[in-house]
Design goal:
- The protein has 209 residues and is α/β, with parallel strands linked by helices.
- The chain folds into two domains: 4-165, Vaccinia Virus protein VP39 (Rossmann fold, 3-Layer(aba) Sandwich), CATH 3.40.50.150; 167-209, no CATH class.
- It has helices spanning 4-11, 28-35, 49-61, 93-100, 117-126, 158-163, 169-186, 189-204, and strands spanning 19-22, 42-46, 70-72, 85-91, 108-113, 129-139, 142-151.
- Helix 3 (49-61) links the parallel strand 2 (42-46) and strand 3 (70-72).
- Helix 1 (4-11) packs across helix 2, helix 4 (93-100) packs parallel to helix 5 (117-126) and helix 7 (169-186) packs antiparallel against helix 8.
- The model has no long low-confidence stretch (mean pLDDT 94).
- The structure holds S-adenosylmethionine (SAM).
- S-adenosylmethionine binds at residues 6, 22-25, 46-48, 51, 74-75, 89-91, 95, 99.
C-alpha cells in the first residue's frame, strides 16, 4: 500500500496531466497514478542506473513497463520533453535546488523536501513560483511538508517564508516537535514560549481540520 506521504502527493496531481517523477526510486508513485486512473501520462526518472533497474522490475510486476517510460537523468539534464507537472520528493533541499536550476522545469511543481523548507520556499519564490497548496502530514513517526507550486509571482511575508502556508493540526504538531527538539538541545526558554503559543493554537483548531 502506498505511504500516506506518497498518497498525499498523488492527491495533488490533476487528472490526466502530463507528469514527470524526478528521483522516482521504486516508481511506486507513477504506478499508483497510473493504476488509480489519475493519469496515464507519466514518465519516471532517476539519476541512478541501479535504482532504475529496480524501478523497471517494479513496473514489470504491474505490466506497466511499456506504459511508464523510465529515463536515466540527473534532474532535468537528460529530459527533452516538456511536462505539466514535475514531482520532486524525498530528497534534501540542496539536491532539489540543483534539480530546479534548469530551464525545462514545468509550471507546476509538487515538492517534498526532507529539510530546509525556508531556504526552498525562498528559492522557489525567487523563481516566481507561488505556493498553491501546502500540506503537513505525519506518516508513521515523521512529519512531511508537501508543497504544490504554480508558476506565478507572489509576495510572501517573512513569516510565510519561515512557516509556509499550512494551517492544519499536523503542521502545528510538527512545529511543536521541532521547538521541543530545539529546546532539548539549547535549553533556551524562548522555545518553551513558542510551544505554549502552539498549544493554544492547536486547542482552537476544530477536530479533523
Ligand atoms: C529517497 S528516494 C525518494 C524516492 C521517491 N521520490 C519518494 O519520494 O519516495 C531519492 C531518489 O532520488 C534519486 N535522486 C537523487 N538525486 C537525484 C538527481 N539529481 N536527479 C534524479 N534523481 C535523483 C535517488 O537516486 C533516489 O532514488
Amino acid at each position: 500500500m502506498l505511504s500516506l506521504r506518497l498518497k498525499t502527493i498523488a492527491d495533488l496531481v490533476s487528472k490526466n496531466s502530463n507528469v514527470i517523477d524526478i528521483g522516482t526510486d521504486h516508481a511506486y508513485l507513477p504506478i499508483y497514478l497510473y493504476q488509480n486512473n489519475i493519469t496515464n501520462n507519466i514518465t519516471a526518472s532517476d539519476v541512478s542506473p541501479r535504482v532504475l533497474k529496480s524501478s523497471y522490475e517494479n513496473l514489470k510486476k504491474y505490466n506497466l513497463e511499456n506504459k511508464i517510460p523510465l529515463i536515466l537523468s540527473n534532474g532535468f539534464n537528460n529530459i527533452k520533453k516538456t511536462f505539466d507537472i514535475a514531482i520532486i520528493a524525498g530528497m534534501g533541499a540542496h539536491t532539489i535546488k540543483t534539480i530546479l536550476n534548469n530551464s525545462n522545469i514545468p509550471n507546476i511543481l509538487i515538492i517534498q523536501s526532507n529539510n530546509d523548507h525556508y531556504e526552498l520556499r525562498k528559492y522557489l519564490n525567487s523563481l516566481n513560483y507561488k505556493i498553491a497548496k501546502e500540506i503537513a502530514i505525519k506518516d508513521k513517526k515523521h512529519y512531511y511538508i508537501i508543497i504544490k507550486y504554480i508558476k506565478e509571482k507572489e509576495t510572501l511575508t517573512n513569516s510565510e517564508l519561515l512557516f509556509g502556508k499550512s494551517n492544519n493540526i499536523d503542521y502545528f504538531n510538527y512545529l511543536k516537535e521541532k521547538y521541543q527538539d530545539l529546546y532539548n538541545k539549547s535549553h533556551n526558554k524562548l522555545f518553551l514560549d513558542y510551544i505554549k503559543i502552539l498549544n493554544n493554537l492547536i486547542e482552537k483548531i476544530p477536530v479533523n481540520y
